Write the C-alpha cells for this entry.
Amino acid sequence: MKRAFPILGILTAILLSYALCMALMPVVHIWGFTVGVPTEQTMGDVQRIFYYHVPSAWTAFILFTINFVASIVYLARRKPAADIVALTSAEVGVVFCTIVLVTGPIWARPVWGIWWTWDMRLTSTLVLWLIYVSYLMLRRFSASGQTPLLAAALAVLGALCVPFVYFSIWFFRTQHPQPVMGGGGSIDPRMLHVLLINWLAFSCFAFLVCWSRYRLEKVQREVEQAHALESLTEAPRSMR
C-alpha cells in the first residue's frame, strides 16, 4: 500500500493538471486533438468556475455520506477504524464544502449582481457546512470519553441535510440554476466531459488526502495509547 500511494499521487497530479487545462482553455485543435471546452454564450468565461464549484460539491456530498456510514458502523460496533474514517472524511468534506461556499459567490457576483442570496440551496449548504464544522469542533475541543459517540450521533443527524441540499432546487423556487443532469437542464457534451474529468480528479485527490489523514490519525492514537499505558505502569512504581 505504501508503494501505491506515490504512484496514485503522480497519476492524480497528472489528472488535476489535465483537468485544469481542459476547464480553463477555449476550444483549440492541436495535432488533430481537440483541447479545451466551449465558452458559455451567456455568462462567458466566468462560467468556467462551474468546473470547480460543482465537482467540489459532489465530492463533499460523497465524503459526508462516507462519514455517515462510518458513524453508523461506529455506533453499532464501536470500531476505532470506523471512527477514524468518519473523522477524516468529515475533515476533507468540510474543505470541499468551503470551496463550494467560496466559489459560489465569486460566480454569482458577475452573473446575478449579488454575492449572496438567502435562497434554499445556498442557505441549506451553509447550514450543512456549519453542522460539520460543529462536528469537527466537538472532536477537537471535547476531552470526554463519550466524544466519539456524541460526534457520531451528530454526524447521523447532519447527514440528513445532504439530500435536502441536493434536492432543494427541485422542491423550492430558488435563485440557483436548475441541475444540468436529471433536473430538466441541459449541457453541452464537451462541457459534461470536462465536468466529469474534474470530478474524477477531485475525487482522487480527496481519496489521497483522506488516506494520508487516516494513517496519521491512526499513528497518533497508537502513540497516545502507548503513552497512557506507560503512565499506568509507572504510576505503581512511583507509589512504592
